[in-house]
Amino acid sequence: MRLSREELKGLMKKKLMRAGLKDEHADITAEILTWSDERGYHSHGAVRVEYYSERIAKGGITTDPHFEFKKTGPCSGVFEGDNGCGYVAAKKAMEKAIEMAKENGIAVVGMRNISHSGSIGYYTEMAADQDLVAISFCQSDPMAVPPGGTEPYYGTNPISFAAPTADGRKVVFDMATTVQAWGKILDKRSRGESIPDTWAVDEKGNPVTDPNLVNALLPIAGAKGYGLMMMVDVFSGILMGVPFGKHVSSMYHDCSKGRELGQMHIVMDPNRFCGLEQFKKNMSETCDELNAMPTADGYDKVYYPGERAVMRKEKAYEDGGIEIVDSIYEYLISDDIHYNRYDHKNRFAE
Ligand code: NAI
């Protein structure tokens, strides 16, 4: 099923409002979910709406949150999310970070007590759109096994980085610190497809290809990915004074309670370093050089991070719209808010 941007965003917004989100919050959430689906990040698009709707309907996302931003220094601040919608909190916190970075050269804005905020590349791209450089990190529920361990301890803890170029292109690096984001496994489940045996392990720690048997995800690059996921948790969790490591709430544990997640945005103004013009010129040059590199057998081109996501977006519209799994479309057009499928489920249930 292919949908236009307006149609998909409209259906998601309507469902989220039906679940209880107010207009502005549903609009921002649906916009960011559409941003993900149109770039082929289906793991963080419409597939999530039913879960969010259940959590909103059961009270686990505050529908009228008391957001509060406290500036703690010229370049730092803390955004209290009151367990409101994570998409809205992360967007508003990035707006603050952008404002402060323009004023003071650098801004470090942490968020406390927010719910899931989806594809975090959306927020770093906001800064690149304003000629700034940004990094964002956030916590997610424990799902990854540390090297030599037996239990999931850290989440898929993503990192995103974005920067502008001189010609409108943007580098948007946006990745989970596990081999695959959990949402990619959800997406494979929803499509009835198998997964490569390098993504995850079963209850006994053996590699699995059936996405329904996943019991823990593997960090990227062994101990190095494990170090990165710890660093993400330190910056966005321990530093924010919210639950950390294995104490981070599980997505499906109790949909009536706030998730208390942490996130951090760091934004820098190139004018405070080499100067904006030189920075953007050299960013364009580095992207051009990467694109021009001779390729190894079996590859058509060397891409810079985020390039393929933009190509997927352009191709989706050429092909008649954003591709959505039929069962998700059926849910979106139905009158049902949710099917009670997520609450109190094992973290790997859905
Ligand atoms: P991915 O594996 O599809 O891509 C990771 C990065 O590598 C991207 O920046 C992509 O542009 C780049 N890339 C991939 N192939 C490339 C190639 N051949 N050449 C150049 N660059 C290439 O992304 P992943 O790790 O599956 O994450 C998907 C989404 O899930 C992200 O938007 C992330 O923010 C989100 N996420 C959110 C979480 C949350 O709790 N909020 C948790 C984990 C992930």
Give the secondary structure arrangement, pairings included.
Elements: E1 2-3, H1 5-19, H2 23-38, H3 49-57, E2 68-73, E3 76-80, H4 86-104, E4 106-114, H5 121-128, E5 133-138, E6 159-164, E7 170-175, H6 182-191, E8 200-201, E9 216-217, H7 223-238, E10 261-268, H8 276-292, H9 307-318, E11 322-323, H10 326-333
Parallel strand pairs: 3-4
Antiparallel strand pairs: 1-11, 2-3, 4-10, 5-6, 5-10, 6-7, 8-9
Helix pairs in contact: 1-2, 1-3, 4-5
The structure holds 1,4-dihydronicotinamide adenine dinucleotide.
GO molecular function: ureidoglycolate dehydrogenase activity
Keywords: Oxidoreductase
Family: Belongs to the LDH2/MDH2 oxidoreductase family.
Short description:
The protein is α+β, with helices and mostly antiparallel strands and 350 residues long. 37% of the residues lie in helices and 15% in strands. Helix 4 links the parallel strand 3 and strand 4.
